[in-house]
Specification:
Strand 25 and strand 26 form a beta hairpin. By secondary structure, the chain is an alpha/beta fold. It has a 7-stranded mixed β-sheet, with no helix packed on it. The protein has a 7-stranded parallel β-sheet with strand order 3-5-7-9-11-13-14, covered by helices on one side. It has 18 helices and 26 strands. Helix 11 runs antiparallel to helix 13 and helix 15 runs antiparallel to helix 16. Adenosine-5'-triphosphate binds next to strand 18 and strand 20. The site of adenosine-5'-triphosphate has 19 residues, from strand 18 and strand 20.
Length: about 650
């Protein structure tokens, strides 16, 4: 095994008491005390309190290492160069006797999200600029060392846990750290600013001997972005601000003016490009805020006093019970904005003159069949009313135009919540919300599956863009029942959610295949990975038809007994949720069984999800009244009635 030699060398140089007695070359290291593997490479070394001493040098060639925890040992000296351990996510070295400067090589580990160097003998300045590169960092523990100098330039927005008490730090506490308790800064040289008392002239003077003498670090002095300035203005008294004036502040002013001019120029160029592009756009469909988006449709020349529109047949607008009525003309007059294009057509948000907001789906050429067939299907769909479904309010049918009018969901879709804006400014999707969405979507699907026993209704296209979030934050399933109109191009055979029997044998969509898609959706919630794109990160992805096969990937990781590895990094910040995450993972894996017969029925799926936490993931009390539609949920018989 490639990792055996470095591990045995590590044992021989550090394990004087022979605590690691089953470490020998006759077995694979994956079975040794404190070692776990992923894809047959050592991914985890957890040796806490084993009385080990000496150096970590031999561990630095374990390239696949993700977790290294050596708390409560007697390791000493400087840390070796860790930059080779580029997969490292968790590094716990507390309660040892490490010394020397802050280990700069650690700041190159850009996947790191927990770093604990506390209770050692590290000293010297903290290289703030380098530490700021660790943008994923959730934990930074440096307490009980001998670090000195300033931390005023620290800017780690994602940090959940921070402690620098028991050091020799001085100067202002930056704004990004001011949310941590007083205890995180206690027993230091002379720190000041929130949460500690305000900085005074003396604080500034006393810290001026350090390497970063002024609380105005060079980086913040030249920043023209307002976000980096409150750190200093917030913590300094006006007197101190004046003191920092003179040469420095005129330089700063010039830098700010130049920066702002640059920003202004870029904005002007962007605006110019934007308006030029809009001018050149062919057709009106893509223009936001325009009165009529359907101008390429026959309605462009519709005359209200005749039943014909420029040679086209005038169709009829059919409303479902409880939906507020409006005329087709109202819809055509509405200002509209395109929400997106899907396999079945284009969706628009339309604001009617009376302020009512609806979503209009303009179907493209589909396998709609005749008018009667279309109407029958709409009658079935229009009667489905449930707090976890997006209600179909009305439809319009003419030979050349088919429109579906839905309640508009103001909080976007699950795809965007999970994958949108994955970067520094992202708001993470917390675990409770994920669980609530999973439960809501399961209930919506259950209502579809149960609503008409004789028809065995299916959704046919479960995926994260079809799980919308209403104004109360509840999940609502949309786009149900359109799959029967699908043409080969409207739903790709392999979109990551497709059950294998449908994708490979072309068998028809069933309730069992819906359950498979729902299982993939649960995996998407758990892993944060997008099933409909090729995953290029890490070489772990198992793909078929060019897209990530999320169930197969998860199974391969779980088989390696490294279940924790599948969960979305974003979820690592929440404590005590492992049990619920593993519970939901088991449900997802049952739903994505390759054999349709082994997949659970939807009622059972709902029950299992609800039992993960109980009442908290139930719909909020105001859900029922949140529906834009006034009509109550209909009975089974009503749903079947129209289509039989
Ligand atoms: N009722 C609605 N309220 C708010 N947004 C909606 C509504 N219906 C659809 N959308 C959004 O409009 C966009 C396009 O939706 P659409 O259903 O046309 O395509 P899709 O979901 O990407 O693919 P498919 O056609 O395969 O379902 C999506 O971002 C979707 O979330």
């Amino acid at each position: 095994h490639p990792d055996t030699p470095p591990l045995l060398a590590f044992k021989s140089s550090t394990d004087v008491t022979n605590s690691l007695d089953n470490w020998n070359s006759s077995t694979t290291p994956c079975t040794w005390t404190g070692i776990s593997c992923l894809n047959n490479r050592v991914s985890r070394v957890v040796l806490e309190g084993f009385q080990l001493s000496g150096s970590l040098q031999n561990l630095t060639i374990l390239k696949e290492l993700r977790v290294l925890s050596l708390k409560y040992n007697h390791f000493s000296g400087s840390l070796p160069n860790f930059s080779n351990l580029s997969a490292l996510k968790l590094l716990f070295l507390s309660h040892n006797e490490f010394s020397g400067k802050f280990p700069e090589s650690v700041t190159k580990l850009n996947k790191l999200y927990r770093l604990d160097l506390s209770h050692n003998r590290f000293s010297g300045d903290i290289p703030v600029e380098l530490v700021n590169r660790l943008t994923h960092l959730l934990t930074l523990r440096l307490e009980e060392n001998a670090f000195s100098g300033e931390i005023s330039g620290v800017n780690l927005v994602n940090l959940q846990e921070f402690n620098a008490s028991g050091n020799r730090l001085v100067g202002a506490i930056p704004f990004s750290l001011s949310r941590f308790p007083v205890s995180a800064f206690g027993k230091n040289g002379d720190l000041c600013g929130s949460p500690l008392p305000k900085c005074t002239m003396t604080d500034v003077n006393s810290s001026s001997g350090g390497a970063m003498a002024s609380p105005l670090s060079p980086a913040t002095t030249i920043a023209s972005s307002p976000s980096s300035l409150p750190v200093n203005t917030h913590n300094l008294s006006p007197k101190n601000s004046r003191r920092g004036g003179g040469k420095m502040s005129s330089l700063a002013i010039i830098a700010i003016i130049l920066g702002d001019l640059l920003v202004l120029t870029v904005v002007c160029i962007l605006l110019y490009c934007f308006f030029c592009t809009r001018k050149n756009l062919n057709g009106s469909e893509f223009r936001e805020g325009e009165k009529i988006v359907y101008s390429s449709s026959p309605y462009g020349s519709y005359h209200p006093n005749t039943s014909q529109t420029g040679g086209f047949e005038r169709g009829k607008m059919v409303f479902f019970e409880g939906a507020k009525r409006f005329e087709l003309e109202d819809l055509l007059r509405a200002s509209a904005e395109m929400l997106g294009k899907g396999g079945f057509g284009t969706a628009y948000k339309a604001v009617l003159d009376d302020g009512n907001v609806v979503a209009v789906k303009r179907l493209k050429e589909l396998n709609v069949g005749g008018k009667r067939e279309f109407e029958q299907q709409m009658e079935v769909l229009g009667r489905l009313r449930h707090p976890n479904l997006v209600g179909l309010k009305a439809y319009y049918f003419a030979s050349d135009e088919k429109l579906l009018v839905y309640d508009f969901m103001s909080n976007g879709n699950l795809f965007w919540l999970l994958h949108g804006n994955r970067g520094p400014g992202r708001t993470p999707l917390d675990w409770t919300t994920r669980l609530k969405i999973a439960a809501g979507a399961a209930r919506g699907l259950a209502f579809i599956h149960n609503s008409c026993k004789s028809l065995k209704l299916t959704h046919g296209n479960i995926k994260s863009t079809n799980i919308l979030i209403d104004k109360s934050g509840n999940a609502r399933v949309s786009d149900f029942g359109l799959a029967i109109f699908a043409t080969p191009s409207s739903i790709p055979k392999t979109n990551g959610y497709r059950a294998p029997e449908v994708a490979l044998d072309g068998r028809k969509i069933t309730q069992k295949s819906d359950i498979y898609s729902f299982g993939v959706l649960l995996l998407e919630l758990l892993t944060g990975k997008c099933p409909s794109v090729v995953d290029n990160g890490g070489g772990l992805a198992t793909t078929y038809g060019g897209v990530l096969d999320l169930p197969r990937w998860v199974q391969s990781v779980v088989r390696e007994e490294w279940t924790a590895e599948v969960f979305d990094l974003e979820l690592m910040r929440y404590k005590d949720i492992e049990e619920e995450m593993v519970g939901l993972l088991q449900i997802a894996m049952a739903c994505t069984s390759t054999s349709p017969d082994q997949r659970p029925k939807v009622n059972y799926v709902v029950k299992m999800i609800e039992e993960l936490r109980g009442v908290e993931v139930s719909p909020s009390p105001d859900t029922a009244t949140d529906s834009v539609s006034d009509s109550p949920a209909v009975s089974e018989d009503n749903t079947c009635g129209a289509s039989q």
